[in-house]
């Protein structure tokens, strides 16, 4: 009985520790964010990359216009998301070149390399959170009103499940090639602008990361 109580006590201590650690990290993140913003405000110059993210946000805002039909709103949402893909492919890729080669770089906004990366990723994450929230809560509910909808596997009828399963086995599965990264070899080449599934497996305490690239010649929807 005492061992059981000690076990409960230890679990509570561990839980409290992780809660405090999470709170500390959130406060540290907030402090660093405010510190970065203060440096940006004091700078006489604008950051090319940060201002581009703001521009892309304005493109995305065009999808909020209720006077546009749903297809035009989807078009602007798709343009903004495609823009972000290209931004990470080109601009963020060059940023990591500086990091990988140990070069020091100060952005025009006044932030050095790592603080700038932190700010850049924070702004990009803010955009993604807003994007997915708006798409799921505002745009998707209007699909059915305009004659179409996206249906998940859980909402399919039995005969539809059989049809989809047969399509996957005959058309999609033969074209899939898993790529593995186990830490002992170089990361496999992942193509830009493709849909990629990431899978983490664990065997005997060793984790393995695998990727499955969806060929671009396959339609996104069935």
Description of the molecule:
This protein folds into 2 domains: 17-146, Up-down Bundle (Methane Monooxygenase Hydroxylase, Chain G, domain 1), CATH 1.20.58.310; 153-214, no CATH class. The chain is built from 5 helices and 3 strands. The protein has helices spanning 2-42, 48-61, 70-100, 113-139, 158-172, and strands spanning 178-181, 195-203, 206-214. It has a 3-stranded antiparallel sheet, with no helix packed on it. Helix 3 (70-100) packs antiparallel against helix 4 (113-139).
Features:
single chain, 222 residues, mainly alpha, Methane Monooxygenase Hydroxylase, Chain G, domain 1, 58% helix, globular
> Can you count the helices?
5
Residue stretches low in confidence (pLDDT < 50, at least 5 long) are 1-5
CATH topology of the largest domain: Methane Monooxygenase Hydroxylase, Chain G, domain 1
Overall number of structural domains? 2
Taking all Cα atoms into account, the compactness measure Rg is 23 Å
Helix-strand makeup class? mainly alpha
Largest sheet: 3 strands, antiparallel
Give the overall pLDDT as a whole number. Answer: 80
Order of helices and strands: HHHHHEEE
What proportion of the residues form beta strands (DSSP E)? 5-15%
Could you say which overall geometry the principal axes of the C-alpha atoms support?
globular
User: What would you say the CATH architecture of the largest domain is?
Assistant: Up-down Bundle
Q: In whole angstroms, how far apart are the ends? A: 57 Å
Specify the CATH homologous superfamily of the largest domain.
Polyphosphate kinase N-terminal domain
Q: In total, how many beta strands?
A: 3
């Amino acid at each position: 009985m005492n061992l059981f109580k000690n076990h409960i006590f230890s679990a509570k201590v561990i839980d409290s520790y992780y809660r405090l650690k999470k709170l500390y990290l959130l406060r540290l993140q907030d402090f660093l964010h405010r510190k970065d913003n203060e440096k940006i405000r004091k700078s006489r110059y604008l950051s090319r990359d940060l201002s581009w993210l703001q521009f892309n946000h304005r493109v995305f805002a065009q999808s909020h216009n209720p006077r546009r039909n749903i297809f035009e709103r989807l078009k602007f949402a798709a343009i903004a998301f495609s823009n972000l893909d290209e931004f990470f492919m080109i601009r963020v890729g060059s940023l990591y070149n500086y990091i990988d080669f140990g070069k020091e770089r100060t952005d025009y906004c006044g932030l050095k390399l790592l603080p700038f990366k932190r700010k850049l990723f924070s702004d990009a994450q803010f955009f993604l959170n807003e994007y997915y929230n708006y798409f799921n809560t505002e745009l998707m509910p209007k699909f059915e009103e305009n004659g179409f909808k996206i249906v998940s596997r859980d909402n399919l009828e039995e005969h539809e499940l059989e049809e989809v399963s047969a399509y996957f086995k005959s058309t999609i599965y033969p074209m899939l090639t898993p790529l593995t990264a186990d830490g002992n070899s170089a990361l496999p080449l992942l193509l830009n602008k493709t849909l990629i599934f990431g899978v983490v497996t664990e065997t005997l305490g060793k984790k393995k990361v695998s990727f499955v690239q969806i060929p671009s010649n396959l339609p996104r929807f069935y």
